[in-house]
Amino acid sequence: MGSLFTSSQLVVYVLVLQTLFASSSLLKTNYGFSSNSDYISAIGDPGMKNPNVRVGFEAWNFCNEVGFEAPQMGSPRLADCADLYCNNILTDSLGGAPLGNGRKCEVRHKVNESDNSLGTGDKFPVTDFESFTDPDLFAVEKELYLGSLCEVHESTKPWQFWMIMLKNGNFDKNTTLCPENGRKVSKIVTGRNFPCFGEGCMNQPLVYHNYSRLVYLGDQMVSLMGGFNGTYDLDANISKGIGKNSFFSVSWQKNLSTGSWIFSNTLTTSAKYPWLMLYLRSDATKGFNGGYHYNGSGVMNKLPESPNFKVKLTLDVKREGGSNSQFYLLDIGSCWKNNGKPCDGDVLTDVTRYSEMIINPATTSWCRPDNLVSCPPYHVSPTGEIIYRNETSRFPYSAYHLYCCPGNAEYLEKPYDICDPYSNPQAQELVQILPHPEWAVHGYPEKKGDGWIGDPRTWELDVGALSNRLYFYQDPGTPRARRVWSSINVGTEIYVSRAGETAEWSVSCVTIMSTAEVVVNLGSDADPTNMNVEELTQLVAQRFAPYLLVEPVKEQIFAPRSPLKPPRPTWPDPDLPRLAIRLISTVNSWVSASLPPPTRFATPGGSGSSSSLWMNMSSYNLTALTSYRFLH
């Protein structure tokens, strides 16, 4: 067998997916989550409680690019980043500033009008950013520039802003603005139908910015309020009313009872623009975001990975947007190649992967026994059982709206349907799911109507567990990709409406939490280079047996301790979550195995040790484990 590791330094990550013992040294707050598990925030603004405004805005054409800027609008990347100061004292934890005693408050903007109005070819005020004459490339650089102005350095992992994303679904097949599965083509040849009223239908919108301003909440409190609004109809004057024009609006204000920002959203389609999308996005602070093939900005400074993360949010849907409004309770985006390797910017081999929970009860299941082409090849039950789509008595067809395959996949199982090859800069794969008992075990809606109009809810979603169950295509014989998600979004896609439709909703209290990672050094006295699976397993068994004290302190490494006799153990519930063990080399090649819960747990007493976790590893027959997954 070939080399598995290139270094003699071997490290084990013990990922406690849902431990019974909360670590006071690691978990300072549960951010409103109901469980007592060890979680850390994956975003710079957990619960949306930062008292200052950090909001970005981006507009895309059909293939997630710019194409052409709207007249007098500049590049469609903007930001509203403002700090609230009251006599040089920052605001309180709920985002409001108490008045009285002669105190005065002011708003300090970090992004001004000249920054937001920058357009293709303009020079940036600082030399760190390069100007481009290509509208697509300029927008990338402008987003990074705005992010640098907004960046928050409250921790070792800075963040920039929450992102508002607006997208035009019109596609002119007479142009070559959009590639086909990442490949530039000289002519679009397709039997698919797309809306387009003629030349110029893929335009960018008119965007108007209400910069964050002071708002007085009674006689004793002051906060900030702002927003963006606009239209795709370039000849419209929405100051005189919306009329029959397209329209979008996003505004933010503080809820002083919860401390969270409330984002209020409105989206209206029109005859010329029947397919529009509007989302609030939590994007990665660097690297590729969902649907991007270049470096971006965002609020997510720790990328969540399946199955180890949860999302909490409050959603109030007020107007549906018509029967074609595919309202996403959650839309998660990632990117990996068909061979399981991470994306590297090569649009010919990268694949954007999406999973979307649609909660509009008018959305039906296209996945049916008589339409297997819209179903994934198999479904994974909560217990891990694989159920194939042709098992008509067992497959949960109504749990899926549709599934479609990436256009660059080479080993597809018939029947199959290729995802739209034009609406991303590279090939894409979609898994769209519907409310169903299969997903309810993870906190998702169980039936149609849950969380819909008149039923506002605060959702606590085990997104990591659900996304780990979903089918995504990979080439046969390749190691399973790490499902690391770089975008998590809430909003709607009004899909080709016959008439003008309006959707209205609000989002607040968004929190993304990843499980804590505990790192233990296995030691370097044994060289794992060229070890096969059996030899590597024996090394793990030697290091863990019979007892090991693991202190859950993030980003520190502890040497293995000699066998210690723990206090009298307590027997855990047999339904305890599973533990995952990862073997990691210095070059991040890794192996993981899922193990059943340890047979004994105990919490050592004594000062300073109440958060430690004792594990009796001798109960594991580690030498018999061969179900490792190798990722190179």
From TrEMBL:
It comes from the Eukaryota. Keywords: Signal. InterPro entries: DUF7705. Pfam families: DUF7705. The keyword Signal applies. Residues 40-512 form the DUF7705 domain. This is DUF7705 domain-containing protein. It comes from Acer saccharum (Sugar maple). Residues 1-24 form the signal peptide.
